[in-house]
Write a structure and sequence with these properties.
This protein is of the alpha+beta class and 369 residues long. The chain folds into two domains: 79 residues, no CATH class; 218 residues, no CATH class. It has ten helices and eleven strands. The chain has a four-stranded antiparallel beta sheet with strand order 5-6-7-8, with no helix packed on it. Strands 4-3-11 form a three-stranded antiparallel beta sheet. The protein is globular, with a radius of gyration of 25 Å. It starts with a helix and ends in a 5-residue tail after the last helix.
């Protein structure tokens, strides 16, 4: 495992040099034509969007335009195509005096604008900017089906179909030698039950196995969906910090709801600790309750996002140098990282489930006498 993270740190260092050198070249190069912007391309691919880009670029791009759902004095729905094929507008930044480009909606999207995938209501037909941020504009409540939301639905449906198939097999055949999907998933289910739940929670593990199985397969399947080659521009769902935040909050709630008297006693009245020290220890323990899910959130988000960024940056070497021969270097390196990401996809699901079980186990552990 240490070898994997050492390799990722090494490639992250190379990516940093690559992006820095590209930015330096774009600022100091003698050519006036627009340079290939590595950072902008990478952020476009790892960020959420209101479209699912398939292939091509600019006017030749082929995309699936997702529905925009807004609540602004009522329910308003329309296709995101009315933004992506809308009117390009330019505004001056009040602080930097630089030009900022955004898109005004057309047709049903008239009266709204999109900037960095965020939808704003136009004031007097324009957006104003200050220090690179939208200033003074109202954001309607946005419940749009974005790329990450669609990917979440796909992952959830896959989990239901796959695990329902396995459950039906055992319900019909009983404890027999597995066949079909059950043959491949039984080893993972047993691993979560025995090596994660039972090993970390103890004799009370059975009631928590469904939750641990759910988060393990949800993270694992969505990690893999982000790497599937036939989904160009695949959604970076587990690299979205709001998704990892939600999963971490779920673990926090399960831990706190399951916590027994012994758990709270070790936070507010630690045995053997002098009472004057409790003034210092109690706040530390309370902060510790929140830092555990925070670590879960950041670990999953950072590892999955880093893998996507490294692969995209390595492929970008070809376009930076505008020579296909560089593919002989960048493609094998990107392939190596992609294969490594398959292992990381499993490891991150395993670690999230294992640490969740560890936190739950600490909350339900009985006092030792």
């Amino acid at each position: 495992m240490s070898l994997i993270f050492s390799a990722k740190r090494f490639f992250s260092f190379l990516v940093g040099i690559l992006i820095f050198s590209t930015s330096f070249a774009s600022e100091h190069g003698s050519e006036k034509k627009k340079e290939f912007n590595v950072g902008e391309m990478i952020m476009h691919h790892v960020s959420d969007a209101h479209e699912w880009h398939l292939w091509g670029g600019h006017h030749d791009a082929v995309s699936i335009y997702l529905p925009v759902i807004l609540i602004d004095g009522g329910l308003k729905t329309f296709s995101s195509k009315h933004f992506y094929h809308g009117e390009h507008a330019v505004s001056m930044d009040k602080k930097t005096n630089g030009e900022v480009e955004y898109v005004k909606g057309v047709g049903p999207a008239a009266g709204y604008a999109m900037y960095h995938e965020e939808v704003y209501k136009l004031e007097n037909g324009e957006l104003s900017f200050e220090d690179g941020h939208v200033h003074g504009a109202v954001k309607p409540y946005d419940f749009s089906i974005t790329k990450n939301v669609l990917s979440l639905f796909m992952g959830a449906i896959l989990i239901l179909l796959i695990l329902s198939n396995v459950a039906r097999f055992y319900k019909k055949n009983g404890p027999v030698a597995p066949r079909g999907l059950a043959k491949y998933l039984e080893v993972l289910i047993v691993m979560v039950r025995d090596d994660i739940a039972k090993a970390n929670i103890g004799h009370k593990y059975q009631k928590y196995v469904p939750y641990l199985l759910t988060i393990f397969f949800f993270i694992f399947i969505n990690n893999l969906l982000g790497l599937v080659p036939f989904l160009p521009g695949g959604a970076n769902l587990t690299g979205n910090i709001t998704v990892t935040l939600f999963l971490s909050v779920c673990t926090l709630l399960v831990t706190l709801v399951s916590a027994n008297k012994n758990y709270w006693l070790h936070i507010f009245a630690m045995p053997g600790v002098p009472k004057p020290l409790l003034i210092i220890m109690i706040p530390i323990e309370l902060v510790g309750i929140l830092t555990k899910p925070f670590a879960l959130m950041v670990r999953l988000f950072a590892n999955m996002t880093a893998g996507h960024i490294i692969v995209l940056a390595l492929i970008s070497i070809i376009f930076i140098n505008q020579n296909a021969a560089w593919g002989g270097l960048s493609v094998p390196m990107a392939l190596f990282i992609s294969v490594l990401e398959l292992l990381v996809a499993f490891l991150q699901a395993f670690l999230f489930a294992m640490l969740s079980a560890l936190f739950i186990g600490a909350a339900v552990e009985e006092a030792h006498h």
